[in-house]
């Protein structure tokens, strides 16, 4: 039996590419994204792009 979960890469919510580094998640809905893209979004909107809950920008 082979588990596929660990090797399966998450796709970024914004650019839809597989995330190989800088993966971040919304703590509420678990959506995955590249950190720089989500950071930019949060700085502009202050919320998660998927669930709309309030998010804080990541510390540098
Ligand atoms: Zn991305
Ligand atoms: Zn969310």
Enumerate the strands of the largest sheet in spatial order, edge to edge or round the barrel. 1-2
What CATH architecture would you give? 2-Layer Sandwich
- Output the number of helix runs: 1
CATH class: Alpha Beta
Hey, roughly how much beta strand do the residues contain? 5-15%
Q: Which ligands appear in the coordinates?
A: zinc ion
- Separation of the first and last Cα atoms: 41 Å
Instruction: Give me the Rg, rounded.
Output: 12 Å
Pairing-aware structural class of the strands and helices? alpha+beta
The CATH topology turns out to be Herpes Virus-1
Name the shape in a single word. Answer: globular
Question: Helix and strand succession?
Answer: EEH
Instruction: Please count the beta strands (DSSP E, at least 2 residues each).
Output: 2
Average pLDDT, rounded to a whole number, is: 90
Total domain units: 1
Largest sheet: 2 strands, antiparallel
Which stretches of 5+ consecutive residues score pLDDT under 50?
none
Assign a percent range to the helix content. 10-25%
Output the CATH homologous superfamily: Zinc/RING finger domain, C3HC4 (zinc finger)
């Amino acid at each position: 039996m082979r588990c596929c979960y660990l090797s399966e890469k998450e796709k970024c919510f914004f650019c839809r590419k597989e995330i190989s580094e800088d993966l971040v998640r919304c703590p509420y809905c678990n959506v995955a994204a590249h950190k720089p893209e989500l950071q930019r979004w949060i700085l502009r909107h202050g919320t998660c792009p998927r669930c709309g809950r309030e998010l804080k920008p990541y510390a540098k």
